[in-house]
UniProtKB/TrEMBL annotation:
GO terms for molecular function: endonuclease activity; hydrolase activity; metal ion binding. Residues 9-103 form the PIN domain. The keyword Metal-binding applies. The lineage of its organism: unclassified sequences, metagenomes, organismal metagenomes. Pfam families: PIN. Its cofactor is Mg(2+). Belongs to the PINc/VapC protein family. It comes from termite gut metagenome. It is an enzyme of class 3 (hydrolase). This is tRNA(fMet)-specific endonuclease VapC. Keywords: Endonuclease, Hydrolase, Magnesium, Metal-binding, Nuclease. Its EC number is 3.1.-.-. SUPFAM superfamilies: PIN domain-like.
Amino acid sequence: MDEKIKEVALDNCYISEITLAELKYGAQYSDRISENIQLVDEFAENVTILPIFNCLEIYAMEKARLRKEGNLVDDFDLLIGCSAVSNQLILVTENKKHFNRIKNLKIENWIER
């Protein structure tokens, strides 16, 4: 993943406000709180943080569609995916199967296991 980030350059990477909230939660819940908060803050300074208000219409339509189909996606994940759709960005995730339910979402997995 580090190689891919170097290839695209960190300043070309974007994250949702929701993603940042999840990273901050993870840092607070970890065994090395101070160290991880610092890592999250440094990372956040080097990427563009996307506000979620731009994706709220897409989110509402997708949530209604998915609910009618019986294919619910967690609200935070749906907001993250819809942020990528509304900003015409590629979502990088290891959870392709989960995010594939969101219409018009382009997905890549940069982690090899």
